[in-house]
Write a structure and sequence with these properties.
210 residues; alpha+beta; Glutaredoxin; Glutathione S-transferase Yfyf (Class Pi), Chain A, domain 2; 8 helices; 4 strands; 60% helix; binds glutathione
Amino acid sequence: MKLYYFPLSTYAQKVLIALYEKNIEFASELVDLRDDQQRAEYRKLYPLGKVPLLVLNDGHMIPESTIIIEYLDNLDPDVRRLIPEDAVRGRQTRFHDRMYDLYLNESVANLIFEGWKPEAKRNQKLIDNANFRIGVMYDYMSKQLADRTWTMGDQFTLADCAAAPPLFYANDVAPFDAHPNIGTYWQRLSMRPSVQKVLKEIKPYLNDIR
Ligand SMILES: N[C@@H](CCC(=O)N[C@@H](CS)C(=O)NCC(=O)O)C(=O)O
């Protein structure tokens, strides 16, 4: 199977963390989202132009980070299962994955992209909304993580794969200093070998955005 990805893409990082957690072999193809020609070429394969995308050896395409991870988890459910088998814990894991993607990741991305624009061109409504959502998420996470190692407790799951990439960028645009439980959660995440591998891989690209 082949993963189409861009190293700075948080959703691609989420899938890479899952691949490394489960120790799955894969080929990869970098799509440079900063390059219009590469984006246009990639849209011939996947018209929405979004990464990550997993293409199986028979050509079957699996887009969307959460769905890719669900596919990977079902390949070998016994190896570091990322979506708990138990129906209730499975639903709660998916819920946190959605919360991290939709309200943390998207909000952090909006703050970063708006921050790159000249001040006069920034969308203040979008910025206010992003800050509001991040505030709600931080309050929720602070309570949730008070007595847990990972989002779902002792088991590292899909939810943690989703949380790590936005938290990596979040401290720049929405510092979590006032939320020590998030700080220690991030410390734990950043020590996790799968996350460390991803952080190492993105290092050469960070100069472009920081
Ligand atoms: N819901 C998608 C989101 C994927 C996504 O938005 N990827 C961004 C990079 S982080 C992208 O491909 N942007 C390029 C574009 O929108 O053209 C997922 O979970 O995989």
